[in-house]
Specification:
By secondary structure, the chain is of the alpha/beta class. The protein contains 7 helices and 7 strands; from the N terminus they run βαβαβαβαβαβααβ. The protein has one domain: Rossmann fold. Strands 3-2-1-4-5-6-7 form a 7-stranded parallel sheet, with helices on both faces. Strand 2, helix 2 and strand 3 form a beta-alpha-beta unit. The chain is globular, with a radius of gyration of 17 Å.
């Protein structure tokens, strides 16, 4: 059983790779950071340098990789485009919207998947948080394509995991003290009373990978934020 995690060198992707490996799967990860890839080479079946936005490289890699059972799409352009719509450079907004959604769709188009596709969106797709318009647009679009893809690609299952506030490197654009203050304040508003971890999300992804009668689903992993 083979799984490919595109964006698997850190955070949610890496935690997922470790869980699926522990479950007995042959896991290959892709990423852009040479140092992180080197550290991962002995832990997984494969660790490949690949930029998810490079369509030529992605197409060539997936053609060579051949048929496999499970695809997890976990890469993103990071915090680019965060801020008020009228103040953020529009190039950054464009990057935030296109550098995740379009590479996800291209990977789905090119991959020879036989059993499941799981995409990572974000709960901001359904939230009203100032300064997240571009971020919400991209993740909202990803969530919206889950249903038609599930119908179109069946019997391959297509699902998404929608994380809330998760402590990952995505937040490294903030100074450490400010990040911790923001996390502490946010945790007070989360029904479960804490910020999420990469492992919390990875467990949901592992469930969907294994859930043979679940498709077209968007699973919120946000401590109850979107139902509060």
């Amino acid at each position: 059983m083979r799984a490919l995690i595109m964006g698997g060198t850190a955070g949610i992707g890496l935690a997922t790779a470790e869980l699926l490996t522990d479950a007995g799967m042959e896991v290959t990860i892709t990423g852009r950071d040479p140092q992180k890839l080197e550290r991962a080479r002995t832990r997984f079946a494969g660790a490949v340098a690949l930029d998810g936005t490079d369509r030529v490289a992605v197409s060539a890699f997936l053609a060579e990789f051949g048929p496999f059972e499970h695809l997890v799409l976990a890469f993103s352009p990071g915090s680019v485009g965060v801020g008020p719509l009228k103040q953020v450079d529009f190039v950054d907004i464009e990057t935030a919207v296109t550098a995740k959604l379009l590479p996800y769709l291209f990977a789905v188009r090119e991959a020879q998947v036989t059993e499941s596709i799981t995409m990572i969106s974000a709960s901001g797709a359904r939230a009203a948080v100032p300064g997240t318009v571009a971020f919400s647009a991209s993740n909202g679009a990803i969530e919206r394509v889950v249903s038609p893809l599930a119908a179109e690609l069946a019997p391959v299952r297509v699902n998404a995991v929608s994380p809330g506030l998760i402590d990952t490197d995505w937040w490294n654009f903030l100074p450490e003290d400010r990040r911790q203050t923001q996390f502490e304040d946010a945790a007070k508003r989360v029904p479960l009373g804490r910020i999420g971890t990469s492992l919390d999300v990875a467990k949901a992804i592992a469930y969907l990978v294994d859930a043979s009668y679940v498709t077209g689903t968007i699973m919120a992993v946000d401590g109850g934020t979107t139902v509060a």
